[in-house]
Amino acid sequence: MDDITRRGCFRSSVGAVVMGAALVIVLGTSRHDRRTHAADPDVPARPPDVAAAGAVTSTVELRLADEGEWEGAVAADVRAVLGSVVDALLPHVPGAGVVVIEVRPRGGPISLFDRAEDGAVRVHLNTGGTYWSQYAYQFGHELGHVFCRFDRDDTGNRWFEEALCELASIYVLRRMADAWRETPPYPNWRDYATSLADYAARLIDEGRLPEGMALADWYARHCDVLPTVPTDRENARIVAVALLPLFEDEPGLWAALPWLNAATPSQPRTFREHLGDWRRHAPPAHATSIETIAAAFGVELTD
To answer: C-alpha distances in angstroms, 29 versus 26, 63, 67, 112, 210?
Structure first.
């Protein structure tokens, strides 16, 4: 990932952790795919800026590049794939808020700090044609950054966000494979479920820790080097694969993502301090989730 032109962040709101999504297609210069999850009274309180605005749903609206830019792929099919990515993750991130994402097939994969004129986050992939698994992998990673509300102020712990986003990619691929076996976007796409599952399996094999080694042990050996190579994909994949069973067993862990970068530190922080700030800024309902994630690294958070 590029270290200079980086990911945007935006306001968050609250939605329910529910399955399924409403889809709205709007005709225009580009197509809009809006997926919405309604509010739930049991979800933790919204951050003040969004609560004041009265937002009551979590929505991801996709704006795709024009038809000819996808190198032979039909834009409606691209929307179906990217929409499936959103459907796999958005239900677990009720604090995502109202998000608008412009997606282009080349120039990345990256989410740009510089927004569109209307505030939309601009995501560039590095794909084209009908490589649907690659679309899902790349967009799943960038969607993770979007939900984390990336902040360029803290480079010392960026490696952790990269790992969470690599985790999002693998998680999304596996959830999409499950979903497409039963209800693919089109009936004749059912067989693509195997390709999605195989793509995820390859990533898992590449990132598997040596037998008998726990993530906490690996982190203890690498904690000094991680801040110096924050976008190293191999490290991110190792952490992602180690965390995958935890997030698959407890998908509610995703709900804490929008507060990962809520702190505005004036100086570099240790990983423990970063996690502690995450817990302090997140709604109290997410404290246990963040402590669970910290424990996987052998990090104990104290008051």
So the answer is: 10, 10, 10, 22, 50
Give 138-156 pLDDT, tens digit per residue.
999 999 999 999 877 666 8
Helical segments of the chain, H only: 48-53, 75-89, 132-148, 158-182, 192-207, 215-222, 233-249, 271-281, 287-296
* pLDDT tens per residue across span 159-190: 999 999 999 999 999 999 999 999 999 999 99
How far apart CA 121 and CA 118 sit, in angstroms, is 9
Condensed to tens digits (0 to 9), the pLDDT of residues 77-125 reads 999 999 999 999 999 999 998 999 999 999 999 988 888 888 899 999 9
Q: Per-residue pLDDT for 1 more than 90? A: no
Q: Which residues contact 113 (CB under 8 A, 6 or more apart)?
A: 5, 6, 7, 8, 152
Query: Which tokens belong to 248?
Result: 């698959």
Listed residue (24, 55, 18) closest to 37, CA to CA: 18
In a 3-state reduction of DSSP, which class is residue 34?
A: strand
Measured from the Cβ of residue 109, the count of other Cβ atoms closer than 10 Å reads 20
Note the pLDDT of residue 65.
85
pTM of the complete model: 0.84
pLDDT at 33 over 90: no
Instruction: Provide the 10 A C-beta neighbour count for residue 11.
Output: 16
Produce one character per residue of 229-265: b if its CB has 16 or more CB atoms within 10 Å, e if not.
Answer: ebebbebbbbbbbbbbebbeeebbbbbbbbbbbbbee
For residue 117, give both structure tokens.
């004129």
Cα dist. 121→31, 46, 114, 266, 278 in Å?
16, 21, 8, 26, 23
